[in-house]
Amino acid sequence: MDHDISRRTFSQLAGLGALSAAMPRVAATELEDPAIASPGRSFPKGFLWGSATASYQVEGAVNEDGRGPSIWDTFSHTPGKTVDGATGDVADDHYHRYKQDVQLMKALGVKAYRFSIAWPRVFPQGSGSPNPKGLDFYNRLVDELLANGIQPFATLYHWDLPQALQDDGGGWESRNTSEAFGHYAGYVAQHLSDRVKHFFTTNEFGAFVELGYAIGIHAPGLKLPPGRFNQTRHHAVLGHGLAVQAIRANARPGTKVGLAENMTICVPVIENDAHIRAAERATREMNAPYMTVIQEGRYTDAYLERTGTDAPKFTAADLKVISSPLDFVGINIYTPTWVRADDSPLGFTAVPNPGSYPHMASSWLTIGPEALYWGPRNVAKIWKVQEIYITENGCSSSDVPAADGIVYDTDRVMYLRNYLSQLQRATADGVPVKGYFLWSLMDNFEWADGYTNRFGLHYVDYATQKRTPKLSASFYREVIARNTVA
Ligand code: PNW
How many CA atoms lie within 13 A of 93 on its CB side? Predict the structure, then answer.
């Protein structure tokens, strides 16, 4: 009888406990050490591990210290717009508990924290007089982070537009908002850049413009006709460019600026030359209204043809502002878009997911670890970007605390391990990814989904505001400590 079969038969008869007691131990050096300390799974020295949140999703304290209303206050308080009528009025009460939350980060071992600044705290009306008490919260937060050895990475716009700007001219539909954004960005850079060395202008054009102004499921809840919508897209990227210029004009030397964009991540269906080239072509075309115009300073011919008489109106000067050079690019990556080569004029087709395609708790969050390889790889290849951060990656899970109070989110650990393996592959291939921000530090207000979809490494009991680390927090702590896929 084969030796291995005899072991299995023995284990069936005797049970695993008896097996482990009876069988000779395999030498640790043969099996365990290579798996644990495998240099092939390590990240480059100095790789920056971080976590991320956003103001309206965690802060609460919406009426404190002179904060003005944002479009998300208005939208979430409108009946029927969020699951269970949830709002960010309290959220994680991070505004008052930020010191405790910095300790959560410290326990994880993260060296960087990506947070966002609420525009209506700093300029309650969007423009005009600043509110120093609003900015003070971020002064306190930044000081607390630095005192704990954590680098602050600040996002200037994570969707909480001052309501006054929406009321006056339709928010991002109006060029006034782009200009007000530039002004606000310059003001913040002037006051924080002595300590904040990395700024992101906007978070996810591909979400706030599309979902807010065309699909209507995010604030301000509009479904604009195509011409007005494409003009809104244009004003959003223009706002980004004005902010880049204002930060450069007002910040201390050495301050770096970029953006955090949820690009469509085009992944070749098969890793061969034809499909890899198709995914590169698709990356430019499928991101034409945002990342491509920012990188190339022009809208692609196909985008202008596709939009026809509804194309945005713009000047050459606008394009120059929009494509102001950046120091780094942040990419938020959750899901892949599978792409194949074909004979169409553009030479690619996006392949729809079959009905059986797996997803995490949020139905949009389809699984494809390869996105974390091809996303940064294509950005580096196509636009010669030298410094890339993964500014968001993570997933929702139907987290339920076990009897011992811990959430054993094995599905999130599975998701993260597989995605990080592909990110490690990218760094090993020389793709210049410098850091990774896991979304999210803790469960929080998940926009229209309210508090139903949890993305945190820490479970938040919203009745008590107690934070409890999940299994995934232990996993991430180990990844960081060993700088390898654990
Ligand atoms: C991002 N989609 O949003 C945001 O930057 C975060 O604020 C958010 O909490 C996180 O991802 C998780 O959702 C997205 O429908 C929202 O494809 C929706 C989509 C993608 C990203």
Answer: 11
Q: Measured between alpha carbons, how far is residue 74 from residues 91, 93, 167 in Å?
A: 15, 19, 11
**Residue labelled with tokens 């090993």:** 428
| pLDDT tier for residue 39 given thresholds of 50, 70 and 90 | confident
The response to whether residue 261 sits with its C-beta less than 6 Å from ligand 1 reads no
The pLDDT tens digits for 256-277 are 999 999 999 999 999 999 999 9
Question: Which of 201, 204, 331 has most ligand 1 atoms within 8 Å of its beta carbon, as the pocket-test mutant?
Answer: 204
* Coil, strand or helix at 124: coil
Cα(254)–Cα(417) distance, rounded to whole angstroms? 34
Return the SS3 of 351.
coil
302 C-alpha to center of ligand 1: Å? 27
User: In b/e form, how buried is each residue of 407-445, taking b as 16+ CB within 10 angstroms?
Assistant: bebebbbbbbeebbebbbbbbeeebbbbbbbbbbbbbbb
Q: What is the pTM assigned to this prediction?
A: 0.93
Q: Are 60 and 95 in contact (CB under 8 A)?
A: yes
Ligand 1 pocket check for 210: Cβ under 6 Å: no
Residue 99, both tokens? 């010191």
Q: Per-residue pLDDT tens for 295-338?
A: 999 999 999 999 999 999 999 999 999 999 999 999 999 999 99
Catalytic status, residue 392: yes
Spatial distance between the Cα atoms of 56 and 353, rounded to a whole number of angstroms: 32
Give the whole-angstrom CA distance, residue 213 versus residue 230: 10
Find the 203 Cα to ligand 1 centroid distance in Å. Answer: 10
Q: Which residue has the tokens 């005797």?
A: 14
262 in contact with ligand 1, CB cutoff 6 A: yes
Nearest partner of 251 among 179, 203, 185, judged by Cα: 185
Q: How far is CA 463 from CA 76, 90, 93, 372, in A?
A: 19, 11, 11, 36
Looking at residue 15, what is its pLDDT? 39
CB-count burial class (<10 Å; 0-12, 13-18, 19+) for 340: middle
Helix 471-482 crosses helix 94-108 at what angle (to 10 degrees)?
50
3-state secondary structure of 13: helix
In angstroms, what CA-CA distances link 319 with 63, 273, 322, 410? 38, 33, 5, 46
Distance 253 CA to ligand 1 centre (A): 32
pLDDT digits (tens, 9 = 90+) for 180-224: 999 999 999 999 999 999 999 999 999 999 999 999 999 999 999
Pocket lining: 164 vs ligand 1, CB cutoff 6 Å: no
Count of CA atoms in the C-beta half-sphere (13 A) of 127: 13
Residue to mutate, 203, 447, 453, ligand 1, most ligand atoms under 8 Å from C-beta: 447
- Cis peptide bond N-terminal to 253, omega within 30: no
